Amino acid sequence: MRNSRHKLLLAPTVGLWIATCLGCATAPKMQWPAWTGLATEDDSGPKVLTPKDKVDQLRELAKKAPKMDQETQEKVSAELARGITNEQDPILRGQILRTLAVYKTDIAGKVLAAGIHDKDHNVRIAACEAWGVRGGPQAPEVLGAALGHDENFDVKLAAARGLGKVAHPNAIAPLGQALDDPDPAMQRRAMLSLKEASGRDFGGDVAAWREFVHGGQPPVPEESIAQKFWKLF
Q: Could you tell me if 170 and 68 lie in one domain?
């Protein structure tokens, strides 16, 4: 119940931040029709965009991001932030977050931070995936909070997976706490992510991983004959 009240209090704050930030933005509105529902007119007249069309456009924007200069990335980020405040389709909100993951702008980071509190759990999963791609020093804090406090188990798993992708020293502590989760799926996910984040490998030995998380140096288990055999292929 405490977590639920916390989320409800956060929701208007997130919306207020985006509105304030965009109100100050000077970026012109892009000639990109994903939020109008209409594409550029051709000989047959306006084309109505389907959700799939919009998802495809967002994926293309993600592919083009590395070739954009900083000014263009700022403009695209601002337009996507405008779009997500008005978008009712959770699939599209999630895809916007995945697209913004590759934009190295402050506004992209703020929208991703807001996305972790979306009312739809699938959007929150997308936000966790986006933070795993974006990385940076803020990622362990955001993902660690989702891992520790989100009420949806799939979101918690996505947060643990994202922490492994981030591979940041600050990812170790929240993953260590996840080792104490009574669900075997979460324990396994925590160990896999700890392996990614730390570069160490204690297999499925929960006790060894706990020792490592608390600063110990447990012995690395020897490979079995079967494991050595399969490495040959």
A: no
Q: Are 137 and 170 in contact (CB under 8 A)?
A: yes
Tell me the C-alpha distance between 198 and 211, whole Å: 14
User: How far is C-alpha 151 from the geometric centre of its chain's CA atoms?
Assistant: 17
- Estimate the crossing angle of helix 70-86 against helix 90-100, to 10 degrees: 160
Contact present, 178 and 189 (Cβ < 8 Å): yes
175: helix, coil or strand?
helix
Instruction: Please tell me whether residue 223 adopts helix, strand or coil conformation.
Output: coil
Residue 145 inside a domain? The answer is no
Model pTM score: 0.78
pLDDT exceeds cutoff 80 at 206: yes
pLDDT at 233: 54
What digits encode the pLDDT tens for the residues 174-193? 999 999 999 999 999 999 99
Instruction: Let me know if residue 142 belongs to a domain.
Output: no
- Coil, strand or helix: which one is 154? helix
